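Hello forum,

I keep getting stuck at the same step: I have a sequence, I want structure tokens, and every attempt I make locally crashes halfway through. Rather than fight my setup again tonight, could one of you with a working pipeline run this one for me? It's a single chain of 330 residues.
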Amino acid sequence: MKTSRLILIAIALLTLISRAYSQDVIYTQFYANPLYLNPALAGGKLDQRVTLNYRNQWPSITKGYVSYSATWDEHFDKISGGAGIIANADIGGGGVYNRFSASGIYSYRLQASHFMVLNAAIQAGYMQYRLDWEKLLFYDQIDIHTGNIEPTREYLPPKLNIGNLDFSAGLLAGFKESLYFGLAVNHLSRPDMSFYGGNENRLRMRWTLHSGMLIDFFQGMDGEDLRNFSVSPNVVYIQQGNFRQLNLGMYVNSFPVVAGLWLRHTFGNPDALILLLGFQQKEYKVGYSFDYTISRVTMRSGGAHEISVAWLFRKHNNPNRFHEVGHPGF
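Reply #2:
Ran it on my machine without issues. Output:
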């Protein structure tokens, strides 16, 4: 069983490497990884913010897909906007196929009116792909009579490490903290992912549209973004090449607990129900979510687990607190 799974992994990875267009990992807790969702959210909370994210996709499949993300961002009056740094690592097949990226973000902030804030961001970084050829097991390596593992006749790619510059951009509009709309385009330079010479395989641009509103039923705590009780309906649409995904859901915040329920649809079929539970204080937030697969893949895949942690380092007596942009929850 273990050997057959390794063969399947090898086939899938070779398909990806040789001719298929890849797509980015999509985190379920969108607003717990704000810079990954939209670079225009850098500095949106005005305070210094650090986030860590972990996602385990299809854990029931041996050596599936695990992703990590770490970000820092803060608003600076001297540069009229926010600055941010984001680093990502995606590990597939137990380290067979890996992607690492790091980038910096500048998000210009325009106070269009007393209630309206506009952000426009640019993002530039470096993306690297690495293939560990020695971890692959091919069908022709297995002697069906003895079970011995022989050398493969598959062609070793001329490049096992690929590095490319990568650029992205984003826009965000916020009306107080009650209504917001964002647009982001990642991979504007469409970096080439191919390990084989003469076989160009460029990463498609990822388009993200997101919008939501915050309905606060009671007055907030000391003017901060922690509410006694509020609800926040949201919609997130993502497209990358032929892949399309629509996420509809709602957060319910009864301080200090946040709960959420989402439906993810890929237009071809419903994909997953997403359950979220979080705990928050003024200085930090912790969230856990689970993707319950409802597509034909079924729960034999194990769904997906995701954990997020965020720290906020408050700037005291910030006169612009009223004009923060972005989602206050997970």
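Residues 1-21 have pLDDT under 50 and may be disordered. If your local run keeps crashing, start a new thread with the error log.
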